[in-house]
Amino acid sequence: MLRNALTFIRFSHTIFALPFALGAMFVAAHGIPSVKIFALIILSMVFARTAAMCFNRLADWEIDKRNPRTAGRHRLVPRKSAIALLFVSSAAFVATTFFINPLCYALAPVALAIVFFYSLTKRFTPFSHFFLGLALAVSPVGAWLAVTGSFAFAPLVLAAAVLFWVAGFDLIYATQDFDFDKKEGLHSLVVRLGIVKSLTLAQLLHLVMAALLVAFGIAAHLGPIYFTSLALVAAALIYEHRVARRLDLDAINRAFFASNAFVGLVFVTATFLASVKCGCR
Fold it and tell me: Using CA atoms, how far apart are residues 75 and 231, in angstroms rounded to an integer?
């Protein structure tokens, strides 16, 4: 049952948003924060993402049944169990933010509204990829607020980088559903632009993301370790785009997970080392 539930919410994909939240946390704390804040940020991320994925699965329940790629999802967890998990994880997220600080607690419902809203966007706009990016972009800002209790320019730049990164890789991922989305009449940017133009747009989005990561390093006063690591990030993205150009769905799936997981790993490692070394002052 647990294994099915983890598969249902694609728990393995937590590694996409979590590194950027942790990176923001390290920079905000000038290193490692208290054990309490560290643990609460992890819990908040897990609960928020679980709630978001449950809402997404419930919103797309009937659509997923008709899509060959997702047809088995509804058999992993009963619908009533998914609804229960949605409410429990949402409540757990809000409760966790209560123990962080008043600002995070006050903004917790706003964060949930943003991550839930993404699941509805494909019904009225082809730009759902950008709303998914916005949903994940909440995480570094939330982690920064958890540490400092106030807004700053640097995490907003990082949030923008996450938005463009996610929108780009989600465009690549969406090429798998081109035929289905066209048949169902769903609002799809890939259907509107075509696969080739969509992949070109994804490249442009990742170029913007790379520029924003540089801007984040400047805004956060990070050192050579961080800026050198961006070469590895660029290499992973180039690999992902080269694989995407083959239009091999199995290869796209493998490259999607491996390259983006690598991007997150490099980012969180670099921000940790840079924060500890330079103090981010």
Answer: 42
Task: Check: CB of residue 118 under 8 Å from CB of residue 135.
Answer: yes
Q: How many CB atoms lie within 10 A of CB 243?
A: 19
Which of these ranges, 58-62, 129-133, 229-233, has the smallest mean pLDDT? Answer: 58-62
Residues whose CB is less than 8 angstroms from the CB of residue 265 and which lie 6 or more positions away in sequence, other chains included: 15, 19
**Alpha helix positions (H), the chain:** 2-8, 14-29, 35-59, 61-66, 79-98, 102-121, 128-148, 153-174, 178-184, 189-193, 195-219, 224-244, 249-278
The pLDDT score that the predictor gives to residue 281 is 45
Residue 7 has pLDDT above 70, yes or no: no
| pLDDT at residue 28 greater than cutoff 80 | yes
Q: What's the CATH superfamily of 2-278?
A: UbiA prenyltransferase (1.10.357.140)
Residue 281 is encoded by which pair of tokens? 């002052």
Structure tokens at 88: 């429990």
pTM: 0.91
CA distances from 146 to 29, 30, 34, 93, 275 (A): 10, 14, 11, 13, 17
pLDDT in tens, 90-120: 999 999 999 999 999 999 999 999 999 999 9
Tokens in use for 222? 């990070």
